[in-house]
Structures are given as structure tokens and as C-alpha cells.
Amino acid sequence: MFKIVFIFSYVFILFLITFLYKKIQPTNKEIIRKIIHIGIGPLIPIALYINVTQIAAQYLAGFISILVLLNYIYKIFPLIEDIDRRSFGTLFYCLSLFILISFLWDKDPKSLIIGSLIMSFGDGFAGLLGKNLRSKSWYIFNQKKSLIGTCTMFLVSLLVITGVGILNGYNFNIYFIGISLIATALEQISCLGLDNFTVPIISSITFNFLITKI
Questions:
Q1: How far apart are CA 54 and CA 78, in angstroms?
Q2: Buried b / exposed e across 111-122, counting CB within 10 Å, b at 16+?
């Protein structure tokens, strides 16, 4: 029971920080959303560290997915999706985590962590820096991408993979760069928030196939 309370307390504090930030900067909707996006990332390694069971993690991910879906329909928590474009990114992100938890929680938690952190940190910081720092930009499926954002996605992905890999006894190799490039390429195709599904799923699968081989 303590573990579940701890997880919900973490989420509550994250939303509280977001709510307070909105009071201070009500017009910066993208940063408000990215605080949640980035903040959710550590939940997976934290839950694994405190030995939350797979079934409990599935229930939590499923419950949050249902809440997000209801929020799209009824706008219960407009803070989550208060942006100026149509996106199902948050829902895709929750669904991808539910799938990864179902297949990798006990089998290969390292690959699960890779997928969740690349999505939360890589995509999150890429969005923040890409939108707030000027650089060369282009459009893919009507979604604006920037050089700074793309480089940030690659570098953060590489840092995540290298950090998790080395901490678990894997030496740095060319596959780390390859997985980072794949994640960066997938992030380019972000119409309707689709990258929130493809990036964590494919990143976890490729790390599992190329590195852990479990």
C-alpha cells in the first residue's frame, strides 16, 4: 500500500508544481505540459526500485490511460492538454508505457527504462529547447522541427542509453549511437503526437534486441 501511495504522491506533487507554475506563467502552455512530460519519466525506474509488482504497475498505467482518454473527451484536467495544436501525445505515451510494462517489467526492466526515459527526457527537452531557442527549422507532416530540438533529442537519448547501459555493466558501443539515431528519426514523425507511442516502443525493442538480448 505504501508503494502505491508513494507513486500517487509523486504524481500529485508533479501536478501541484505545474499548477503553481501556471499561476505564475499562465501563457506558456507548452512549458506547463513539458513539466508533466519530463516529470513522469522517473516514475518507471522509481517503481522498479521500490519493487512495485508488474500487475500493480499495469493497473496504474491502465488507470492513468483511462483518465487521459476521459480528459480528452470531457476536459476534466485541461491543464494536461492546454496547447494550441491537436495532439493525442499524452494518451499515446500512457498506452506505450502500459504495453512496455506488460511485456518487459519482469523480463527486461533495463529496456523498459530506456524507452520511458528517452521519451520523457529526450522528447521533453527537445521540445523545450527547440521552441525557445532559434535555429534552422523544417516541417514534417505540418509539424515544425528544429535543428536544436533534433540535436537535443539525439544527445539526450545517447546520454540515457549510455548511462543505463554502463550502470548495468554494458560497455559503450556503436549500437548506443544507432538506437539514439532511430529514436531521433521517429521523433521527427510527430503528427497527432504519434512519436509518444513509437519512440518508447521502438527504443525499448531495439535496446532489448541489440543490447540485453533477453
A1: 30
A2: bbbbbbbbbbbb
Indicate the residue type of 23: K
> Within 13 A of 3's CA, how many CA atoms are on the CB side?
14
175-214 tens-digit pLDDT: 999 999 999 999 999 888 899 999 999 999 999 999 999 8
Q: pTM for this one?
A: 0.89
Describe the chain by its helix, strand, coil percentages, rounded to 5: 75, 5, 20
- Measured distance CA(50)–CA(42) in Å, rounded: 12
Burial class (CB in 10 A: 0-12, 13-18, 19+), 58: middle
To the nearest whole percent, how much of the chain has pLDDT over 90? 53
List pLDDT tens digits, range 68-110: 777 777 766 665 555 555 567 788 888 999 999 999 999 999 9
